[in-house]
Amino acid sequence: MSPAMINLAVESETKGGDDSIEIEFQKGVKHLCDKGITGVPSKYILPVPDQPKSSNGTWSVSNRNLKLPVIDFAELQGSSRSHAVNSLRKACEEFGFFHLVNHDIPRDLIENMIDVSKRFFDLPFEERSKYMSTEMRSPVRYGTSFNQNKDEVFCWRDLLKLSCNPLSDVLPFWPSSPADLRPAVVNYSKNTKLLYLMLTEAILESLGILVDSKKNENENDGLREFENGSQLIVLNCYPKCPEPDLTLGMHPHSDYGFLTLLLQDEVEGLQIQHEGRWVTVEPLPGSFVVNVGDHLEIFSNGRYSSVLHRVLVNSAKTRISVASLHSLPFESTVQPSPKLIDEANPRRYKDTNFASFLDYMSSREHKKKSFLESRKLT
Ligand code: OGA
Ligand code: NI
């Protein structure tokens, strides 16, 4: 379809009535942009109250960037561990998000991960489309929006989702082009998994569930389940957008897992809800943005909260991010830690597992925090 025809769809505000236009949307945002659209098609236009500059209900939009708390990974591993664990607790309680600096992952590995992601999205559509699937459970899925089967309004994002469990089984299904994608993601996933495990140890310590692991190596069997946990790597591409105030790169959502480690390029776009406002997270080069997911909120019985976040797009630059989502094994039950429940602190969440989350996700439009809400005991 020519740019003129796609733009015609924009101008005539076609609302899914034309099948051929609907098929174009299913091919993703990168494809639309490569075709040369000059406006945002109606499929992507949010209702005015949900647009990025609108104050939605009680959530106004801050015009100042937010500096997230900074957690120093080296400090966590050293003699100031208890100080760093305290900072971690505060960050998880007050923000649900933090920057992680001084982690051991080499800079070239990180830069290469962003670079190979860019090169994947720059491949011709025919190459990318080999991995296209609308099956939400597929271990490899190239797609667009969140749930492109159900989302009424699409978001301005294309994604490549790579399940990492177990690596040897899934690897043959990962894209074979660019040629260095598989080794780059394998290397990246192993490094982020290790980092996640060490962070999780500190988080359990911050909740008072584990004792100082540097002093008592044998008492921490509780970590074993995390070691066998699940990992998903999602490469996100937010192409530059001709009318960025009408749409979002990701709609407000919380992450379902235990922790997410997010790598972003130098372009800002991530916004989180904080103190009654949507605020843009100021990028900190070389750091990871780490956030509490739904499973950690449940596990901590609500002490740490899985905060809603969204992604803005812009008209100047395409933005790339790589999310590494970690949780317990797929078959595990997630429940509030018994060590955090007593008469004064009754259990606040029902048990949950991945299967129920995936059923929920496949069956409906991705809406805000609704899954977590459904797990709350009232
Ligand atoms: C996510 C996410 C934010 C970003 O992948 O869940 O929130 O900036 N990503 O890409
Ligand atoms: Ni997220």
What does this protein structure show overall?
This protein has 378 residues and is α+β, with helices and mostly antiparallel strands. It has two domains: 1-44, no CATH class; 61-375, Jelly Rolls. 31% of the residues lie in helices and 17% in strands. It has 13 helices and 13 strands. The protein has helices at residues 3-11, 19-26, 29-34, 73-77, 81-94, 107-121, 125-128, 167-170, 181-206, 224-227, 294-299, 354-363, 370-374, and strands spanning 60-61, 70-72, 97-101, 140-144, 158-163, 230-238, 250-253, 259-264, 270-274, 277-280, 288-292, 309-311, 319-327. Helix 5 (81-94) packs across helix 9 (181-206) and helix 6 crosses helix 9 (181-206). The longest helix is centred in the middle third of the chain and has 26 residues, at 181-206. It is globular and about 65 Å long. The N and C termini lie far apart (51 Å). Bound molecules: N-oxalylglycine and nickel (II) ion. Nickel (II) ion (NI) is lined by residues 253, 255, 309.
What characteristics describe this protein?
single chain, alpha+beta, Jelly Rolls, 2 domains, 8-stranded mixed sheet, globular, binds N-oxalylglycine, binds nickel (II) ion, metal-binding, oxidoreductase, cytoplasm
